Amino acid sequence: MSCDVKLKPRKPKTETTTNTTTISEEKKTMSSTMVRNEMPKFEMAAYDSKTGHYTTVSSEDYKGKWVAICFYPADFTFVCPTEIAAMNAKYDEFQKMGVEILPISVDSQFSHKRFVETEPILAGLKLTMGADTTQQVSRDFGVLIEEEGVALRGRFLFNPDGICVAQEVQADSVGRNVNEFLRQIEAWQYATETGEVCPAGWRPGKKTLPVNTDVEQMTGRVGDYITIEDILS
């Protein structure tokens, strides 16, 4: 899989026969969504690129925090280091917003270390990289391609209650936009704090929809509160 340009279709479930009984294999592939579900519990080895040491990470580390769990297909590929480098370039912004970042692939912590040390675009990396060598974490998050043993590009945002509020999952040939992700986090944090809701493309300083105070008046009249020019500006 890694960064192939030509996408391969997912393989359908196969059937096996045991004692004349046909049993469908219960392999979990892509879940419909993680949104509004609790973060799956996990613990795995990791490489802390800031210190240069191996460590462990677990879901317990992120209790009470905003956290972005970011799966990528593999070390030593092509699109993957650009995504990791982009997240790292915005590391200070994530920290100011109180957001932790955990990139994860099925590679080992040893592979992560070598990857960071040899890939020029990852110079100065500050992120801790999870090593899902059993593939179970990728499976639990619903992004594992079972037949290939790698994860899709899956990015999940969890609030301090451990609930997933946003996810983005896509195939491997196109990288994700870190600036758009930061915008979404700002919107989620604002909506969580105020009880207002954020229209498409919302950024700090732009109009929100005060459904927490004017829900009856707004019903069917959103256009009285905000215009398409407001949304696209």
Can you describe this structure in just a few lines?
By secondary structure, this protein is of the alpha+beta class.
Could you list some keywords that capture this structure?
233 residues, 28% helix, disordered N terminus
Question: How large is the share of residues in beta strands?
Answer: 15-25%
The ordered H/E elements are EEEEEHHEHEHEEEEHHHH
Helix content: 25-40%
Structural Rg: 20 Å
Low-confidence stretches: 1-5, 13-31
Write the layout of secondary structure elements.
Layout: E1 15-18, E2 21-24, E3 43-48, E4 53-58, E5 66-71, H1 79-89, H2 91-96, E6 99-105, H3 109-118, E7 128-131, H4 136-140, E8 144-145, E9 150-151, E10 153-158, E11 164-170, H5 178-194, H6 211-218, H7 222-225, H8 228-232
Parallel strand pairs: 5-6, 6-7
Antiparallel strand pairs: 1-2, 3-4, 3-7, 5-10, 8-9, 10-11
Descriptive overview:
It is a single chain. The chain is an alpha+beta fold. Helices cover 28% and strands 23% of the residues. The chain contains 8 helices and 11 strands. It has helices at residues 79-89, 91-96, 109-118, 136-140, 178-194, 211-218, 222-225, 228-232; strands spanning 15-18, 21-24, 43-48, 53-58, 66-71, 99-105, 128-131, 144-145, 150-151, 153-158, 164-170. It has a 7-stranded mixed sheet with strand order 4-3-7-6-5-10-11. Strands 1-2 form a two-stranded antiparallel ribbon. Strands 8-9 form a two-stranded antiparallel ribbon. A hairpin with a 2-residue loop joins strand 1 and strand 2. The longest helix has 17 residues, at 178-194. The chain is elongated. The chain starts with 14 loop residues before the first strand and ends with a helix.
